[in-house]
Write a structure and sequence with these properties.
With about 70 residues, the chain is an all-alpha fold. It contains 4 helices and no strands.
């Protein structure tokens, strides 16, 4: 189930670009994802001109069903 906030984030104009790039980067991996890999993925997404919450919130919303992390 997705929270209302997550549903809103998943409808942002940049979300599809972020999630498609994240998916492509994940599919290119042949080993388990490391924290360094994740940092590199974020850098690749930022190179598309997308920054801050427009990078992190869509990934969180898609994976966890919530736009916000733990308090």
């Amino acid at each position: 189930n997705y929270t209302d906030d997550a549903k809103d984030v998943l409808n942002w104009p940049t979300t599809n670009l972020v999630l498609n790039k994240f998916k492509d980067l994940l599919n290119s991996k042949t080993s388990p994802l490391s924290p360094e890999d994740f940092d590199n993925f974020v850098t690749e997404i930022k190179n598309l001109g997308i920054k801050g919450k427009e990078v992190f919130w869509p990934i969180r919303a898609a994976l966890l069903g919530d736009a916000h992390g733990p308090e």
